[in-house]
Amino acid sequence: MKTEKVRVVGIGASAGGLDALKDFFGAMSGDTGMAFIIIQHLDPHQVSHLPSVLAKYTDMAVVHAKDQIAVEANSIYTIPPNKFLTIRNGKLHLSETFKSNSLRLPIDFFFQSLAQ
Description:
Blueprint: E1 7-13, H1 18-26, E2 34-40, H2 50-54, E3 61-64, E4 75-78, E5 83-88, E6 91-96, H3 106-115
Parallel strand pairs: 1-2, 2-4, 3-4
Antiparallel strand pairs: 5-6
């Protein structure tokens, strides 16, 4: 049995991008065949309610990414606070954050792994 690769869409947003995310997913079918991974610049010490907020605008499953979770179609994964996220071989990987030139760059970090 051959498994089909899931198409992955990476979305980077600032904390102010919530309205755009609600509009985007509110206008989209829940059966796209794609997985969406949202990397949002957040306060590392603030709890994120993004999955529960976005779940009101889509029929797709919306969850915080977990380490080693397999990416599935018609799902939305959000980065948990104070973590970096990468994707490799169809699985998400969480790691501790670090600063590059005094900046936390979680969106850049994820997109580099997605490009590979």
